[in-house]
Amino acid sequence: MPVDELAPNDPRVEHKFKSFGDIKYHYIVAKPQGKPVATILLIHGWPDLGFGWRCQVPYLQSLGLQVIVPDMLGYGQTSAPESPEEYTMKKMTAHMAAIVKDHTDQPIILGGHDWGGFFVWRMTAFYPELIRAVFSICVPYMPPSPVKISLEDLVSKYPNFRYQLQFASGEAERILDKSPERIRGLMNGFFGGRTPEGQGPVRVEIGVLEENLERIGPATVVSKEVIDFYVQEHSRHGFHGPCNWYRTRPLNGEDDLELAKKDPKIKIPAMLVMGEKDAALPPRLAEGQEKYFEAGLKKETVPDAGHWLMVERPDLINKYIGEFVKSVLGDELKASL
């Protein structure tokens, strides 16, 4: 049975904006029928949009949850400041905390994918009182480091992160911002499109492959209408803002020095979902994670799936999130259904 998913201008959601000085966020709010049992905040990664959670939102509404999904800084209808200094975890988690407080006075469930997965672990550290449970798709928990680690040092330890050097350098945005058709090639490639030789748009040991972008065929996992929407939204600002997330390691490293003085353990229920064939973030990175989780860690691996799990296997992702939400809310959820 196909999963119910939001369309780009779906009437089931409200579009909201919130400003912090010169920075303006766009986000959607999806409300359930009746009073919400709880609120869930979903954070996307690179190069995605809040729309990346479209297969999860109707399902979570059906569980009685209020769902908040932003376009993160640099993306879509949200502002894309020039300076990487605006893109630190500390600043952006503060923005998310303020948005949440506009819609609920109760602790939330927090979920993220890709950069959003890294983000949710840090938001849990900065705002423990705001979050009752947390899950990450594709990104294991990395405790704040008591010493600063450069991007070059990270890449030498994890060679499958070498693409991040290109993304941080300005080269990836130079390649992608040349034309909307290059953005189309990138997104088609992420969602199953390939060149005639069977190649994709990115290799983890290099980054974006310029020579492939305009030769990639249509996506196989999502429709042309979905790709059209991504091209439209990514063309608003180009890729400098999204790539700024990769330029923040020294800045986030400073903030991590403070966080590292506290107990690094996650004290609330947590879930980590990995994709069996994710080239950048393989399941082996999740080995030994349990030691960081005082209230337990639900661990899942989606078989025969890559990085874009929410759309590659929305049925399984919804099942895992649903089981997790039900385990967290328990009787509260039963009473509402």
Total beta strand runs? 10
Number of discrete helical segments: 13
Strand content: 15-25%
Low-pLDDT sequence parts:
none
* Whole-angstrom Rg: 19 Å
Helical content stands at 25-40%
| Arithmetic mean pLDDT | 96
Q: Which word captures the global form? A: globular
Spell the H/E element sequence.
Answer: EEEHEHEHEHHHHEEHHHEEHHH
Cα distance, first to last residue? Answer: 22 Å
State the secondary-structure class.
alpha/beta
Task: Give the strand order, joined by hyphens, for the main sheet.
Answer: 1-2-4-3-5-6-9-10
What composes the largest sheet?
A: 8 strands, mixed
Task: Describe the model.
The protein has 337 residues and is of the alpha/beta class. The protein is built from 13 helices and ten strands. It has helices spanning 57-62, 89-101, 115-126, 151-157, 163-169, 171-176, 180-190, 224-237, 240-244, 249-259, 309-312, 314-329, 331-336; strands at residues 14-20, 23-30, 38-43, 65-70, 108-113, 131-137, 202-203, 207-208, 270-275, 297-302. The strands form two sheets. It has an eight-stranded mixed sheet with strand order 1-2-4-3-5-6-9-10, with helices on both faces.
In short:
With 337 residues, the chain is of the alpha/beta class. The protein is 35% helix and 17% strand.
Topology, element by element:
Blueprint: E1 14-20, E2 23-30, E3 38-43, H1 57-62, E4 65-70, H2 89-101, E5 108-113, H3 115-126, E6 131-137, H4 151-157, H5 163-169, H6 171-176, H7 180-190, E7 202-203, E8 207-208, H8 224-237, H9 240-244, H10 249-259, E9 270-275, E10 297-302, H11 309-312, H12 314-329, H13 331-336
Parallel strand pairs: 3-4, 3-5, 5-6, 6-9, 9-10
Antiparallel strand pairs: 1-2, 2-4, 7-8
